[in-house]
Amino acid sequence: MRPPFDERYQAALVDPNIRHGLEKFQGSWRISRDDAIADLEAETEQTFLDLRTQLAAAKQAARDNLEQVTQTFCENARRAGSTVIFAATIQDALNEITQICARHDASLMVKGKSMVSEELDLNKALEGHGITAIETDLGEWLLQLSHDHPSHLVMPIIHRRRHQIASLLESVLHRPFDPDDIPTMVATVRTELRKSFVTAHVGLSGANALVASTGSIMLVTNEGNNRMATSLPPVHIVLAGIDKLVPDTRAALAQIRLLGRSATGQTLTTYTTFIAGPTDHQHQYIILIDNGRLEMLADPEFESALGCIRCGACANVCPPYSIVGGHAFGYVYTGAIGLVNTAFHHGIDAVAGPQSLCVSCGACTAVCPAEIPLAEQILKTRARVASSPNGRSHLRRLSLRLFSHRRIVATGTTLAAITTRPLVKAGHLRLARPARQLGWRRVPRIPIRPARSLLRAAYPSRLDERSAEVVTLFIQCVTDRVAPEIAIAAARLIEATGAQLEVPRRQHCCGLPALDSGERDLAIAMAKQTIETLEHAETVVTPAASCAIAIRHDYPTLLADDPGWHARAARLADRTYDLVTFLTVHGYEPVAASAQGVTVHHFCQSTNVAGLGDAMDNLVCEVAGASTRPLRDANVCCGFGGSTSVVAPEVSSAILDKKIAAVRESGAKILVTDNPGCVLHMRGGIAAQGADIETLHVAEFLARHLPG
Amino acid sequence: MSTHDVAVQFENELLDRFTDRAEGAGATVQTGTPSTLVDHLVSRARSGGLVISPRFSVLQPSLAARLQYAQVCQLASSEHRGHDIAVGVGAAEFGVAETGSVLLDEARLEDRLVDLQSLRLIIVLPAANIVRRLDDVADWFEERAGVGQYASLTTGPSRTADIERSLTVGVQGPAILEILVQL
After folding, report:
1. A55 to chain B, closest Cα gap in Å
2. Which of A72, A213, A460, A673 fits A248 for a cystine, CB–CB 3.0-4.6 Å?
């Protein structure tokens, strides 16, 4: 149905138009969308979070009662004169459509935009039956002319620039087109398609919602083509997934209230049309499609994704999507939602490649107006891919299994430190022929002594006699072995708040690398080991924001199946803090900083998952008295993404390039951030570019300004 | 303030909000009495006559009669199918202040031909029919359960931004949407 993932991925990497077009698009979309949402919040006197919870609840109510809602819809639609048909599979739906066309002697069809028809690969199938299907939405029509497919749910041809479209129109219409005269190019769709609208035998549309209480479909469109397609031809076919059912008009209006604003930043799309039954001269058929939706409904991990209203916002905030576009970051459905529903509509193999590009930054979850936990569901998809026949990797499992053993890692890193010592230059390793994963960043040197060894002298493994609050330090595997100075700095800062510090010997890895690779059982094993090591603690503090989030947010879900472990995980989650939050709550007395300009990058999940806001900036500014320069897109992922930097390093490095460009723009000489993974990723990239910018973990920066 | 004054102020606020939102979506909004509206419509007819929708003659019979008397209009019919209409005139059931939308009942194909194929579409909306929120028109839809319908909330002229997110107004629908609010 689509070319193999590797082909799509490589093609996207070499296409200069995709990246340029998407960058422009994402930037301008964000501004319009934020304005439109702020406007809605003022209008309704509710927050976006409340509004989306309400929409999610309305759609959930329909799903909880699906049989009844479906029956009500069918009764009302039939009363209005429609014929309602169920199609379990893609093939069933295709059969129904071709039969309808045969019944009405139809050989010409005009189509409004319908993602379900893409799911079916309808146009191709109809061709085989001698039926010509003409796309009438401008973007879809242009794609059809160039034998291409949509790369975005709402902006189907966003991956093509104006000069490409001008060339396309020139080759099809045999007259010149000025690439900068977009209105003239748009005008062609009115003149070229008019005849088709007037002579077509069948008009096919999707449905943005199926309203049960009135038996009507809701169609949302800006151009008006869908209205032409559903009015002029004598037969109207509606193709809709059963997930589109809503109980009543109010629920449909709640949907459009958020749809336009999230999709394009408009208050409403130009036309919101409700259609019940055929017009006098027409026949109307409504085909309700399953194709994996019932399977999703029965799967508690993914069921909520059926609430998607197809706004495309998840693609618009996605850093990897902005590099490769929807053909690689998706299959038929594109963007984060595509990474979740593709397994159900097109099989697990179809999503294996696309999901590997996700950096788990959480931006999609944060922006989704239907409150779908997309980032979490993508990770669950990754776990299913990792255990699927074509997705299993013995090497990956073996590596993670070895990694889960603290002593093996200790021996391994010590050996690596010794053997690579000759290659160290300016804090990084010089490698003669760097692998694909390493060409664009310097690899940090591995110190001989890990943090735990350096801290052992000063701090006990466990404090039983206490004279002050005891804080248990969780170092993090990477910090321990590769960047021990971060842990030393964190220890000094915690002491400066007046707490006593203990550093458990048996601590190792929180399990995030395994979770991030899809090896859920190995992640669970490491989580249990970490819980055992830390659960005696009153307060756990870690300089690794990613581990804090793993312990607080992922552990309870990972261990949900075992009530005993779940309770232990929940208790630990309650008592674990990232360093920034701890320092903000407890306070300490710094020495004022020098005047050098500092800029602050926020670990993506700190904003999108933990909702941490400006606490780090406050510490840097207010507490340490440094002057900060604003950083463009400070909350956007640096591109590390854990497993992404290994399996899709091109995407990882392209995102990093954007981050470094923004850092350079800020004019700051010091870059500060709250997560060691980001520190090493950005430090390596900055070193490779030879830029004169120092990258520090916020602990390192603040520790410079401790007295003594 | 008397109840009447409060009611008038409320209506003015609604009208202001509606105008603001509709203009934000690219429509133009003018207010007038029936006489001024007729004059305005007649002036628009100068370049070749108006095509009025059947719904317009139902909702605005006296306006329709005056236009017919002035011999500047014809009723939309199946003859118009597939042909651009220079100036079309329709009538709205409601206006929604929250979004600047007009609710158009397009159950008959001829109503839709005016709304779809006019290059300039003029919609007459009684000021008293402007409601505040989208929810306020939900009942209108619900009352038509199980009955054939075709109705649109129309917000501004037709448009697309499919090419590089650059906005072009006027695609398969009107390029100009004029809303005439009848006081």
Report:
1. 14
2. A213
Summarize pLDDT for A69-122 with one digit per residue, the tens. 999 999 999 999 999 999 999 999 999 999 999 999 999 999 999 999 999 999
The distance of A624 to chain B (nearest Cα, Å) reads 44
Q: Would the CB atoms of A227 and B116 count as touching at under 8 Å?
A: yes
Helix, strand, coil shares of chain A, percent, nearest 5, are 55, 10, 35
Chain B contact for A179, CB < 8 A?
no
Average pLDDT over residues A425-442: 75
Q: State pTM to two decimals.
A: 0.94
How far apart are alpha carbons A577 and A62 in whole angstroms? 39
Task: Give the DSSP letter string of A232-258.
Answer: SSSEEEEEEEGGGEESSHHHHHHHHHH
Among B116, B135, B168, whose Cβ lies nearest the Cβ of A228? Answer: B116
b (16+ CB within 10 A) / e for A489-520: bbbbbbbbbebbbbbbeebbbbbbbbbbbbbb
ipTM score over 0.85, yes or no: yes
- CB contacts of B24 in chain A (<8 Å) are 267
Give yes or no for a contact between B48 and B83, defined as CB atoms under 8 angstroms apart.
no
At a CB cut-off of 8 Å and minimum separation 6, what does A104 contact? Answer: A201, A202, A234, A235, A283
Q: Are the Cβ atoms of B108 and A279 closer than 8 angstroms? A: yes
Read off the pLDDT of residues A528-579 as tens digits, 9 standing for 90 and up: 999 999 999 999 999 999 999 999 999 999 999 999 999 999 999 999 999 9
Q: Answer yes or no: do B138 and A250 touch at CB < 8 A.
A: yes
Residues of chain A found within 8 Å of residue B166, distances taken between Cβ atoms: 162, 182
Give B80→chain A minimum CA distance, Å: 11
Give the separation between CA A139 and CA A117, rounded to whole angstroms: 15
How many helices and strands in chain B, by DSSP H and E? 6, 12
